[in-house]
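=== RUN LOG ===
request id: a7f3
mode: sequence -> structure
chains: 1
length: 266
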Amino acid sequence: MTEIVAPRPASTILLLRDNAARKEIEVFMMVRHYEIDFNSGALVFPGGSVDKGDKEIIANPKLYSGGEGLDEDALSFRIAAIRETFEESGILLARPRESKALVDARRASEIEAEHRASLCAGNTTFLKVLTDNGLWLALDELVPYAHWITPEGMRKRFDTWFFLAAAPPEQLGAHDGKESTDSIWVSPREALEGGESGRFKLPFPTTRNLIKLGGQNSVRAALDGSRGKDIVTVMPVMTRLNGGRQLRIPREAGYDGELFEVGSLG
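=== RESULT ===
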């Protein structure tokens, strides 16, 4: 009997901005390096695994705002989401200590230039970056959007929380050139069209969330429409039919259906 691999906790953020000229929203996405062993070459949202350093930050509530009433697991998913987004895009959802305003683009750029490469290389910690720069994480900027768990039977599995957040003004973001090889601000419509044409490789959860996000025409509408909503966990059930594969997800999760024919999960 094949042993079921335990899913690794992970987080991702759909960073949003308005495109007023087109009257639609855009989301920051990156192309995963082709040598990465999970979703290689895919167009994805920034994110990654929760690590022990994220849990060390929890021990010091002065390093984050908006964590009231959240347990350790919920806090670790949110902290990991902001850390991974900073590592992968340079965009920083944080505030100067005790300030209500997010770090401005100039200061965020300075912090990125000084610390991002070292953080990605494991030569410093996010805890130290926050402490040395007098920052606290803006956990309250994150709106829970979706919760997906990789199906049983896959050799690599993730228990992933998706969050929405408005992109901080004038923080444009850029891929790191290592784990990701390109980055783009793109509307859900354009990303989905690219997936259909072959321009982009879109994992199944990414496609479903882009379709869901495409139903909103502004950042405010997307955030307000998701606040306070119950999140239904999605762990697709995979079956084989007529030489192909089908995935079933809960209808109550609020996506564009329940049964889907797929060629690949990633």
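=== NOTES ===
DSSP finds seven helices and 13 strands in the chain.
The CA atoms of residues 89 and 175 lie 5 Å apart.
=== END ===
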